[in-house]
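Researcher: Last one for today. Full complex below.
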Amino acid sequence: MRSILTKFNWFALAGGATTILLIAVSLVYPWWQLKVGDDIMTVNASPISMNLGFLDTSFTIPFIWALNMISIFSLLASGITMLIYSVIPRKSYSKHLLGFGYKKPLFTVLFFVIGLVATTMICQAVLSLNIPLMGSTTSTLPIPFVSGITLTVLLSAGFQWSFWLAIVAAGLCIAARLYHTRVVPSPSATPAK
Amino acid sequence: MDKVRLLLTLVTIAIVVVPLVGMVLAYQDNLVGLFVPPEMTEMADDFMGGEGTDGSGLEPPTMVGEPEYNPATRTFSISFQFKNSFPIDITIKSLTGNIECDEHRFHLGVASLSKPVSIDAGETGTLTVLGTWTKEAIDHFENLHGDEELVDAVLLDFAVDLSGIQLEMDQGQMEQAIQVPNPALME
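Model: Here's the assembly. Have a good evening.
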């Protein structure tokens, strides 16, 4: 029983599979969503796919699309290497596979959250536009070249379930790194014969 | 082992470089388009340079039909036709404003939209505005417009809820000229 548990890195197997599932899910469900007014404008954000929806029209910013591609390929490579590593954790090159794969979901989540917080802070500082990360608020929008008119909108934002799936994937990959020491004990920890 | 490490490093570099370089090469003739897609600028142009008479995509509403007045409740109703010159369907959920006598700039009462109105892009819809005269307004009509059947007034200080977006216009920003039936002659 113990040999089955330590023959494979089960956390890496689960982490790799969850990471690949996360890519597929995030193409459809955003990690974070912002709605303006009665769905007049919607911002669907995730490292995998980001678009701005204005009523029935959807915009994709080419530069952001390129960043999305980087995230997709990066997470895909991470998921695949974690799956390969999970079945051969004791090979000489396995630790390189693990090192390559386990950090990427965590960094993706961290960069996404930092980017989101930075964007809302920049909007607050430059446009005086208060965008909530979670929950609803009314905010006054500046209208360029027009004075005497106040534009107030209801902004509703929140993290979606796919974001929590990303955190689970990142957690499983970190657990895989910690479990690696159980699968492949360091030479100093091996009892002398 | 070193080959694996080298391969993984090359994969990491390729993952980052290829999409960025590919996108920059694709937009090398229009680097602004890399950050602002052409569809976005087209839509912004549609909004800023709409079909409105002032070029802003907004046309003032035109009064239609005869205003109605109920002396018992001191309430009146006025209908307007409003052309939605925006390239999108809109719902006017609420509209409130003050009514002043055009000649004496005397506050006569407040007006609000009777019910929400949805107007498709480019179409014209009818807005019915309900208002109530204040007691002072009735005195004003009696004392200063006693012989006029219709009195010139203005609807101003609008607050409009357009599909969840609230627009408030400061004093004097936009005035809608209206003619109201003189309540002093209808009691």
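Chain A has a mean pLDDT of 88. The domain at 2-187 of chain A is CATH 1.20.140 (Butyryl-CoA Dehydrogenase, subunit A; domain 3).
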